[in-house]
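To whoever is on call:

I kicked off a structure prediction for a single chain this morning and the downstream step that reads the tokens threw a length-mismatch warning. I double-checked the sequence; it's 525 residues and nothing unusual in it as far as I can see. Pasting both halves so you can look.
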Amino acid sequence: MGLDKLDVHDHVAFYYEDHENMVTLLSRVLRLVSDRKEACVFLASEEKEQIVKGILDDTAVGQICIGMDGSAKVPHPYTGLERPPTAESMLAVLGDTIDLATDEGYNAVWVFTESEHLKRMMGQKEHISFESLSNKVFEEKRAVGVCMIDAYGGRSTIMNSIMTHPTLLIKGHVCRNHFYMDPEKCSRVDAGPPNMNFILDKLLEVQMSELEGRCSEEDLRVLNIKLQAEVERRKMVEWALLRSDNDHKTAINAIEEMLFVTDKHNKILVANDAFLSKLDSLGIYGNVIGEDINDVMPFIKGTTLDDLGEVVKTGRGSLKEGRIKFKGKELVFEVKRAPIMNGDEVGRVVSVIRDVTEQRRTKDELIRLREQLSNLMKGQAKEIISLREHITFEQERRILAEGRLLSLVRILERSKISMLVGDCDMRVIYANPAFYSIMGYQKEEMETIDLEDIFVPKERQMVEEIISEMGPRDEVEFLADAMTKDGSNLPCELNVIKIDRDGHVLIIMTASKREDAWSAPIGEV
């Protein structure tokens, strides 16, 4: 089966022994991809990406998207990934990159992966998870998987490569994969790909080489069947473990508090995203799994970590709070621990940490303000009591004054003397019935006019000048013509007194028709 027969969902393992073999093989593949109007994405080292760029420049191959900045429509797959990336984040970026390339109009996307580079970048555990879970991407999307494996140092056979990268066997069983023995055979002849039975036979040769001479052909056939069943069982167990691990990570990462699990020797076994993010914010980077918690967070040793040994010793959980100072900042943590029993002894300890710095700072501030308020109230108690007595006294005076004023108003309401009260702005404040009856106004109308409005125009300036020139407690009598509501003149004799009381100026005026003039001074009124 030749390269031109490969289609989407296929997965190819290419083996090369030196730089020249790799360049020859990649040149052939890239030209094939260009002819088929398909795209390429490389999850490889920068060295391999530069080699690919040189091949594209030399062969003038066009319409190819590669994973290098500024050289293609598809962005670099590593852009935005955290370091080191996880299998989930790498798979998400890979899926988005394939979708973007197919949206651009490419028929398919060839995904080149360099296993050694990914293993160095992601770590052994995440790399195995990525290789196992990437089958779903190749099965669901229009992608062709190409696993680039170097065979330096004489490791040129497919069996040695499979033993080095065991997950290829899982891929070979799940996907429609095609394995080529080496680049020379791939370029010289279209050798047919070995099937799954062939791979299992080769594994038997490696694992059972000492028994070959002593076992009959029938025994080998039975053993081969058993080995196939064992491979199937182990594959199902591995997939179940991977699914369980993914569910476990999803569950602990959903917890907002910082969570980590240690063994009885204080080694970190599991940590959620909240814990790792907090370490990043404190300037502590890198993979902390397997590290001693006292080495990872030495600044809180002696405060919240000492009870780990107590939990392991007693088997009882704990809830404690500790304050630390780190890089000039005071942090407050609430730590809850729960033991995980292994028989009669504690095997692991789950620790949940809550950062309660802001809550404690707010609580301390409230306590401080409460104490200040208490001290202030004690110091001002006498002044407050004195002020309350003064206010009570003033209220009593006001009530008494209001009563006297009400009595005076009642007297004026029944009086036949025409009386008017105004302020310093010449506005009418009060007029008794005798006054507004001779003027022909209603009570409500009197409260809307000015003092000067009750006089004829020629008298207004004179009245205003007389009142403005009066001093406090001055009393003046004069004659003036008033103007009734209907506009007729009413000759009047006026008696005016000006009173200044607490900054308030009152003008009290009595008026009578000239023929009925009342000669008593207004002060007596």
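Update from on-call: the warning came from a stale cache, not from the record. Cleared it. Sanity check on the structure: Residues 318 and 337 are 5 Å apart (CA to CA).
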